[in-house]
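Reviewers of the previous submission asked for a worked example of the structure-prediction workflow described in the proposal, so we include one complete record here. The input consisted solely of the amino acid sequence. No template or homolog information was supplied to the procedure at any stage.
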Amino acid sequence: MQFPIQRLLNRATWLKVHLYLALIGGFFFALMGLTGSISVYREDLDQLLNPQLVIEQPSGKRQSLDKIMAAVQAAHPERYGSWTLEMPRSPHGMITAWYDKPRETFFELYAPLMVSVNPYTAEVVASRFWGQTATTWLLGLHTQLNLDSFGWNAVGVLGLLLMVSVATGVYLWWPGIRGIWDAIAAPVPGRLAAYTPSLAIKVRHNAGMIRLAFDLHRLIGLLSASVLLLLAFTGFNLSYPSILETLTGSSGMEHGETGRDIVSTATPNNHPVKLESAEFVARGPFPRAELRRVTTPAGDSGIYRINLRQGSEINQRHPYTTVWVDRWSGQVKEVRDPSGFSPGQTFATWIWPMHTGEAFGATGRFIWFLSGIGLFILYVSGLLHWLHRHGKVKDRKVKFIDKDAAAAALRPLVYRLQDAVHRAGPMLFRLSGLLRQKAKLYAPQVRKGCAMLLQRLRSLIINLINRQKRIGKNNWE
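From that input alone, the workflow returned the following C-alpha cells.
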C-alpha cells in the first residue's frame, strides 16, 4: 500500500502533471518562447524594418541635450510634463524621447509615445506609439498578451507553470548516472547487449517521424532546461516584483522604477538649470559613468533624474546609478549608488538583464534566442507525440537521405552531428566540475544571501500566522 507521499512522488503522477501542463499551457509557453526570441533582437529588427532610424555615416559632434529637447517640444508642443531622453547605444542610433502617458493611449497599461531624434542634427525622424509598431506589439504580446493588467498577471502565472513543467520534464528524462554514462560512452567492439548505450540523449533519425519528434523533445528539453528555468523564474519576478522585494527587503528595485518620490524644495526663479548643466552636476559623484537617461522635471516641484551606468553594473540599458538634481538650485538632492546595495538589492538588479540575456553578452543573447525557439519546438514535438498516441496522427518514415548524390552528401554530416551529441556528455561533466569550483568560491556569499532570504521568509510567515490568530481572537470575542 502506497502512502500519500509515495503516490505524490510516483513517476506516473509527475507524468500526468507534465502532460496536463503541456496541454493546458503549452500553446502559451510556445507563444512566450517565440515572441521572447524575437524580442531579444527587438532594436535590431526595428532598425531593419525602419531604415530611417539608422544613421549610416555619423559625422560631427552630437547636439546638446537642450537642443534635442527643444526639437522634441517643438514637434509636440501640446504635450506637457516630463520627458525622458534615452541615449543611443551606438554611434548609428537615435536618441529616443519617451512621453509616458499621451492622451491617445492614456488608459492603456503601457503605451508611451516614442520620438526618435537624430543626435547629430536634432531632427525629429519619427514619432510612434508603443504597441503600434511590429516589434513593440510582439514585445507586448510577450509581456502581457496585449491584455493589459490581466495579461501581465497571466504571464506571471505562466512563468510559474513553466518552471513546474521544465522541472517535471527533467525528472521524467533522468536516466540515472549509469544511463548518462552509457549514453555518452564510446561504443566498444564486442560489448554485451546489456551495455548498449542508453537512449537518453540519442536521436534516432531513421525510426519514424514520431520517434524522431520524441527524441528531439527529450534532447532539446535537456539542453535548454537550465535556461528555460532561469527565464521562467525571472519572468515571474518581473510580473510580481513585490514578492521578491518582500523576501529580499529590496523595495523600490522594480524594473523601471526608482522607488523614490523626490521633489524640489528650492524657490522657483527665472534661471532654471538646463539639461546640460544638470548632467554636468550629476557626473560629479560618477565622473567615469556613461549617460543613459535624463528625465526632465514636471511642474515647479519637479526635479531632474539622471541615470548613469558605471562599468561594474550588469544592466546595460536600465542601470541603477541615479542622481537627482534640483531644477532651480542646481544642487544634488539624492544619489543612488549600486555599489552600496545590500545583497538583496544586488540580486534584484540581476533579474532584468538575466531575463533579456544582456547579462551574458552577445553569446548569452543568442543562447536565449535559441532557447525560446526550442520552447516552441518542445511544444510542437510533444503535441505531435500525444496526438499519435491518441490515433490522431499516423507515423511515417522520415527520409533524410535520398538516393541522389546531393542527398547522399548529407550522410556524413548527419553522423557527425550524432557523434557531436555523444561527445557533448563529457563536456557537460567538465562544465559541472567548473561550476562546482565556482560554487565553492562563492559559497560564503550564497549562504549569507540564502540565510537572509530564509530569515525574511520565516518572519513573513510568522507575521501572517500572528495576524490570523489576532483576527480569529477578535472574531471569537
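The first strand starts at residue 84 and ends at 86. We consider this example representative of the routine output the project will generate in years two and three.
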